[in-house]
Design goal:
Blueprint: H1 3-12, E1 16-24, E2 40-47, E3 49-54, E4 57-62, E5 65-69, E6 75-77, E7 86-93, E8 103-106, H2 111-123, H3 130-153, H4 159-168, H5 175-182, H6 186-197, H7 201-219, H8 224-230, H9 236-247, H10 251-258
Antiparallel strand pairs: 1-7, 2-5, 2-7, 3-4, 3-6, 5-8
Length: 262
């Protein structure tokens, strides 16, 4: 089945949301046993990293990843001793959409995050609107399949470098390290990286760091300088400048506007 056929199934179908929760590995909702669901399962990893096995396919996942299990496919998430994983988990009932393989996507531009949060927030409203949920699910499924298709078309792009960046973005990262992972020159890596992500390595790393900083600013009372170092910036001054360039406001102003602890 090609991409256009998948699109038609989604367009003509009536996807139903059967489960929608946000939780981490300490929750009883997290099932570490091998299991399967009669629905498509979509997960967005807000935090953490780990290993997943889906009907013989091994996946290494980290924060900002989207993972989709086809309906009926057995899977198992391994427990980890490192930072706890936190996810938004959706079960989508659309029997006509029969995926041939599990899907894993890196959230390059915050698109997946926005779509998952749209579904989650609407589902958790006191009176959610079925029309909004249906079309939010259609948009999410369409974007997942498009992103997967584009990723497959660029499978020769720097996948190892991207995986390393997502796992180590709070650390000092150099082009030499990434080029060695891919066994290519730094100049070729830079060209391939920009072609796949639309930005330079530095810009991509900084975007991940700023997204992590935004979460810390809104969910903790840590000082701005402490957060700057925690997410990987070597200079608070550079952090301030980068944060303002990407968000349009200072870290302090962002905290005042969005803090959950205020």
């Amino acid at each position: 089945m090609d991409l256009e056929e998948y699109y038609k199934i989604i367009h003509d179908g009536r996807p139903k949301l059967r489960f929608c929760e946000r939780f981490d590995e300490t929750s009883s909702r997290w099932n570490f046993s091998r299991h399967a669901h009669p629905y498509l399962e979509l997960m967005y990893f807000i935090d953490g990293k780990g290993e997943i096995e889906v009907s013989g396919t091994q996946m290494s996942i980290s924060l900002f990843d989207t993972v989709v299990y086809p309906a009926g496919w057995a899977h198992q998430e391994a427990s980890v001793s490192e930072k706890l994983r936190e996810i938004i988990c959706l079960w989508v009932d659309l029997p006509e959409l029969q995926l041939k393989e599990p899907i894993q996507l890196h959230d390059r531009d915050n698109c997946m995050s926005n779509l998952f949060w749209t579904v989650y927030q609407e589902a958790k409203r006191e009176r959610s609107e079925p029309f909004i949920l249906e079309y939010a699910l259609k948009l999410l499924l369409t974007c997942v399949l498009r992103g997967h298709s584009e990723a497959m078309a660029h499978e020769l792009a720097p996948a190892y470098a991207l995986q390393y960046i997502h796992a180590h973005y709070t650390e000092h990262i150099t082009l030499d390290q990434l080029a060695a992972l891919e066994h290519i020159s730094k100049s070729y890596l830079s060209r391939q990286f920009r072609q796949r992500t639309g930005m330079t390595v530095i810009a991509y790393v900084n975007r991940l760091r700023i997204e992590a900083a935004k979460r810390l600013l809104t969910a903790s009372d840590k000082g701005v300088n402490e957060i700057a170092y925690q997410v990987g910036f070597e200079s608070p001054k550079y952090f301030y400048r980068t944060f303002r360039n990407l968000t349009g406001v200072s870290p302090a102003a962002f905290r005042r506007q969005y803090s959950r602890t205020s």
